[in-house]
Amino acid sequence: MRPHEETAGPEEGAGGESRRFARTPEDFECLVCGATVRGDGYTNHCPACLWSRHVDVHPGDRAAACRGLMRPVAVEMRARDSILTHHCVDCGHRRRNRTAPADAEAALFALARMVAEEVSRHGPEPAGPQRGGQQVRGTGPGSGAPRRRGRRR
């Protein structure tokens, strides 16, 4: 697994890795396309088809009970790297991970194109966290929620 942006902060150790990050080098065979993948301890997904597997609670710990396949659903191209978002087809868990130099550019661009086509057809996904398939309603400005006045007693 690659370290996430979400794990940075007070728990961050030397080298920018979280104390919750466990480097686990292991090779695997992709369950989707059958490619043999050489793991380097940061490998989280198949570089050929970009699919992953839901095996970690924290990166590298292999503690997730689900073990479902994780479909690549989004790619964010940034100045220095790219971020893949995977969605577990069994339990619905989402996780963001950095791409690797070995990832197939054609697969990354195909995913970006697919996401762009979906957005043009159906509009963007809801931006906020979701609970039970429903958008969690915010209380900030523009959320449509009633504004609370004064102190609540």
List the helices and strands and how they pair.
Layout: E1 28-29, E2 36-37, E3 52-53, E4 69-77, E5 82-88, E6 94-98, H1 105-122, E7 130-131, E8 134-135
How would you characterize the overall build of this protein?
With 153 residues, the chain is α+β, with helices and mostly antiparallel strands. Residues 1-17 and 128-143 have low confidence and may be disordered. It has one helix and eight strands, in the order ββββββαββ. The radius of gyration is 18 Å and the shape is globular. The strands form three sheets. It has a four-stranded antiparallel β-sheet with strand order 3-4-5-6, covered by helices on one side. A two-stranded antiparallel sheet has the order 1-2. It has a two-stranded antiparallel sheet with strand order 7-8. It has one domain (14-124).
What keywords describe this structure?
153 residues, alpha+beta, 4-stranded antiparallel sheet, two-stranded antiparallel ribbon, 1 helix, 20% strand, globular, disordered N terminus
Q: Summary?
A:
This is RNHCP domain-containing protein. With 153 residues, this protein is of the alpha+beta class.
